[in-house]
């Protein structure tokens, strides 16, 4: 692959599965244990903030015990060595790409290590539980929520993502079911804008038909082999 090509990589929960972080749709995944409308919407937060804050406290604590896997490390190596454009757009709120050493990472659905103060709009780095309503470090108000994008909320930095897709020569999707928009629509955008498209996933996703190439298997095998 010519070293000056521009690559956009979209990752989903499947890239973190082998690190022991639940995906959303596999058997026993997050959606099964918690109904989506119960925890990942602003309405749920308004209706039952304690449930939502406890759900995210549980996930934040679980993520902090996990480690990046061979797929995260392979992408971090590619990020360090690739002289062309490269952007890892992740739907994941975990920080495993960063802990593997990747630098060019964009969290379109937010980050579990950030809180968001609804009183002063500050976005403090946050590793502790939120369910006991801690004071915002900026304004002192007990008004912190997880800084993640819920259903019905606008994903972050869509302009930057669209700009990267316009320049992309190659679009690679890793470990996502293609169930949630706008992320699930990026492959069509990339194709229409002239990029090659490759899907690396454990099973065929809802969007597989849009990819020129789909390779099936675990990310810890497929991603290092692709990066090599
Ligand atoms: C928006 C962050 C508009 C939180 C997430 C009706 C009402 C409201 C909205 C809608 C609606 N109908 C449609 C919508 C739009 C909605 C949507 O798409 N809904 C779906 C359900 C139909 N989207 C939104 O609401 C988005 N916002 O549209 O805003 C707007 C416009 C103007 C102004 C304001 C707003 C926001 C969506 C973001 C929601 N937040 N996450 C949190 O993490 O808790 S979504 C969450 O699920 C993920 O972030 C991800 O994006 C999504 C899908 O999960 P995946 O990552 O794909 O994981 P999944 O388990 O599904 O799949 C795992 C895959 O990995 C599988 O394919 C599996 O085979 C594979 N795998 C497993 N193991 C491995 C593996 N692969 C490789 N190796 C392995 N070992």
TrEMBL record:
Keyword entries, A-Z: Acyltransferase, Cytoplasm, Metal-binding, NAD, Transferase, Zinc
Catalytic activity: N(6)-succinyl-L-lysyl-[protein] + NAD(+) + H2O = 2''-O-succinyl-ADP-D-ribose + nicotinamide + L-lysyl-[protein]; N(6)-acetyl-L-lysyl-[protein] + NAD(+) + H2O = 2''-O-acetyl-ADP-D-ribose + nicotinamide + L-lysyl-[protein]
CDD domains: SIRT5_Af1_CobB
Location relative to the cell: Cytoplasm
EC number: 2.3.1.286
Superkingdom field: Bacteria
Pfam families assigned: SIR2 (PF02146)
Swiss-Prot/TrEMBL cofactor(s): Zn(2+)
Coiled coil location: none
Annotated Deacetylase sirtuin-type domain residues: 1-228
Binding site for NAD(+): 12-31, 91-94, 175-177, 201-203, 219
Residues at which Zn(2+) binds: 117, 120, 136, 139
UniProt binding sites for substrate: 56, 59
GO molecular function: NAD-dependent protein lysine deacetylase activity
Note describing how the cofactor binds: Binds 1 zinc ion per subunit.
InterPro entries from the UniProt entry: DHS-like_NAD/FAD-binding_dom, NAD-dep_sirtuin_deacylases, Sirtuin, Sirtuin_cat_small_dom_sf, Sirtuin_class_III, Ssirtuin_cat_dom
Protein role: NAD-dependent lysine deacetylase and desuccinylase that specifically removes acetyl and succinyl groups on target proteins. Modulates the activities of several proteins which are inactive in their acylated form.
Family: Belongs to the sirtuin family. Class III subfamily.
Alphabetical list of PANTHER family matching this protein: NAD-DEPENDENT PROTEIN DEACYLASE (PTHR11085:SF4), NAD-DEPENDENT PROTEIN DEACYLASE SIRTUIN-5, MITOCHONDRIAL-RELATED (PTHR11085)
Domain text: 2 residues (Tyr-56 and Arg-59) present in a large hydrophobic pocket are probably involved in substrate specificity. They are important for desuccinylation activity, but dispensable for deacetylation activity.
Name of protein: NAD-dependent protein deacylase
Species the sequence originates in: Novosphingobium bradum
Gene field: cobB
């Amino acid at each position: 692959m010519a070293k000056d090509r521009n690559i956009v990589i979209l990752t989903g929960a499947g890239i973190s599965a082998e690190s022991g972080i639940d995906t959303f749709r596999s058997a026993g995944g997050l959606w099964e244990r918690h109904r989506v409308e119960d925890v990942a919407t602003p309405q749920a937060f308004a209706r039952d903030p304690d449930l939502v804050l406890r759900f995210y406290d549980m996930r934040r604590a679980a993520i902090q015990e996990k480690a990046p896997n061979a797929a995260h490390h392979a992408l971090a190596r590619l990020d360090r060595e690739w002289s062309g454009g490269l952007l890892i757009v992740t739907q994941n709120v975990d920080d495993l790409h960063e802990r593997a050493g990747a630098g060019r990472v964009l969290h379109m659905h937010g980050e579990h290590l950030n809180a968001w103060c609804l009183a002063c709009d500050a976005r403090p780095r946050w590793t502790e539980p939120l369910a006991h309503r801690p004071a915002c470090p900026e304004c002192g108000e007990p008004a912190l929520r997880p800084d993640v994008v819920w259903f019905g909320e606008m994903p972050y930095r869509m302009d930057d993502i669209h700009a990267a897709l316009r320049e992309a020569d190659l679009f690679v999707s890793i470990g996502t079911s293609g169930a949630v928009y706008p992320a699930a629509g990026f492959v069509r955008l990339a194709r229409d804008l002239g990029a090659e498209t490759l899907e690396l996933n454990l099973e065929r996703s809802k969007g597989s038909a849009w990819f020129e190439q789909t390779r099936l298997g675990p990310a810890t095998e497929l991603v290092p082999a692709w990066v090599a």
